[in-house]
Amino acid sequence: MILTKILFLGLFVELSAAACTTKGQRRAWHTLTNTDKLAYINAELCLMKKPAKLGLPGAKTRFDDFQAVHQVQAYLTHYVGAFLPFHRALLSAHENALRTECGYTGWQPYVYWQEQRDTGNFKKSVVLDPTYGFGGDGSGGKCITNGPFANYTNSLGPGYSITSHCIDRQISEMFSGWTGQKDVDACLAKTTWLTAWPCIEDRPHGGGHSGVGGQMSNGVSSPGDPLFYLHHTWLDKMWWDWQAKDLTKRLKEMGGTNIMPDGKPAFPPRPNTIPKPTGAAGDPGTQTTMTHILNMYGNSPNVTIADVMDIGNDLLCYEYVEP
Ligand SMILES: [Cu+2]
C-alpha cells in the first residue's frame, strides 16, 4: 500500500495513492472474444516496439525489459520461497505496462492459459492459434513461423547470454501432460506452503515451460516468449486458489530457502557479466520471510513479499474469473 501523508488543517491525513475499488478481472484466454484477444496481442506488440528504459544489458525494447528483469535474477528467484511472489510481482508490472504504456484499457486486463484444457495436446490449443493467438510450434524445433510474434527479434537469451534470435518453440506433449487437472488438484490439496509451492513449481510449472519448449523451456530467458505471461498467470491463479482455501492463514504463510539449493542444473549461477541487484534485495538470512525484497530493477518500485500476498490489495487489485 502506498500512503501519502499530508498536513491538512493541522492534522495528518493518510491518503491511499491508489485504493483498489474495481478489481481487474483476469480471465482464461479461451473465454475471450476475438476482439479482446487481439487487444491483448496488440498491446504486447506495442511493448515490443517501444524502446527499453531500464538500462539492463542487451535489452532493446520494453518487452525485453521484463525479460531482462527475470534474466538477471533468475538464479535467486527459482527453487526458492520467493519463486511465486517474485513472478506475481513481475506479472503485475507487465500488466501495468500493457495498460499504462500501450493503451490496453479494455474491459479486462490480463489473461491466463487454462492449461488443463490442453494437457497432452498443446499443439491443438487455441492459445497457439496463428490469427487469434500466439502462433504455433517452431519449425523443426526452431523459429515460430506464424502468428503475430513470428518476426520479433529477441535480444536476450538463451539463458544469461545476449544474442539476437527468433522466438523458438519445440512442443513436447510428454511435458504438456504435466499440466492436467490431476496435477493441479494434487498441488491444491497440499496443506502447507512448504509443500504447495514446490508442487506448483515442479510439474505444472515445468510442464508448461517444457511443453512449449524452445525459449520457454529456458528457465533464465523464458519471458522472451510472450506465452510466458499466460503460463505464469495460470500458476499465479493456482497459488491464489490454494491461498483462498484458508485465506486468513495463507495470506501469511511464507517460508522456504532463500538461497538456491545445489543440484539444480537448470539454473546455473549468475555469471559476472550480469549485474547484481542494486540496493537491498532478498532476505538477509537463509530463509524466505515476508520482508523479503523483490527487486524490480527500477521498472517499478521494489516491493516485499508481504505486499504481494493478497491479490485484492491496493497494489495488485485483481481477481481471477473461473472459465
Ligand atoms: Cu521464472
UniProtKB/TrEMBL annotation:
MF GO annotations: metal ion binding; oxidoreductase activity
Keyword terms of this UniProt record: Copper, Metal-binding, Signal
Metal-binding recorded as keyword: yes
This protein's record includes keyword Signal: yes
Signal peptide start-end: 1-18
PROSITE patterns per record: TYROSINASE_1, TYROSINASE_2
InterPro entries listed in its UniProt record: Di-copper_centre_dom_sf (IPR008922), Tyrosinase/Hemocyanin (IPR050316), Tyrosinase_Cu-bd (IPR002227)
Domain Tyrosinase copper-binding span(s) in chain numbering: 78-95, 225-236
Domain of life: Eukaryota
Protein name as catalogued: Di-copper centre-containing protein
